[in-house]
Amino acid sequence: MTTTTSNVHSFYDLRAFAADVRFGDATDADVITGWAADSCALPLSQGPVAVLAARIAPKGNHAGLEADEFVFVLEGKLTLVKGNHSVALPRNASAVIPAGKPFAWQAAVGTTVIIMRCGSGPAGAETIVPIDESMDLVPSGPPLAELLVGATPSCRNFTDYRSANGEFVCGTWDSTPYHRLSMPYRHHEFMHLLEGDVTFVDGNGREATFSRGDAFLVEMGAHCSWESRNHVKKVYAIYRPAA
């Protein structure tokens, strides 16, 4: 990822954010106990959302989270288990742990994750939901025509997880190149780029280009443009209020 300035408040480079966090000693299993107990949150000001960088304890179990949690593995390996169902997450993989569902986990020493926690409504699944990047994508709506500079892109999507109220949605999306003028974000959106690169410019003129492998967040209330000059594919987690 390249950026023209630091302290960009409308979008966050999550790998850089996690790299700056002072976690406990990863070699001492007694230092870190409980799910995501060793963590640091971004200073988000809107919505029922928290975004954390967390060092995961080697193993444990939880009676049920208070909110849905989208989990993206930055480093290491994490296995999530609910009953007879297990989901193995290597580096750069992701899954959703639905609220209120008991689960257990095992993690390689030093495993670091980004968690997007959304407490806007009831869970939309009974078990852990992996984000399957290989699923066939189906056509989805392009950006608003009045915001586009140039041709209308072809966009596709697959939704792996949707909360019961429809406000928290996670999946995979792709698009042909396009340039979109600045718009206000009514939502928080986590993105992990699988292909391509995207340049954002926010309302203060701050500019950043994110490339394949980068993980970042655009926060609710930001005013950002989008420019992609090649095919883009991403994993996303979005909180968008219904009203």
UniProtKB/TrEMBL annotation:
Residues 163-236 form the (S)-ureidoglycine aminohydrolase cupin domain. SUPFAM superfamilies: RmlC-like cupins (SSF51182). Signal peptide: none annotated. This is Putative cupin superfamily protein. It comes from Novosphingobium taihuense.
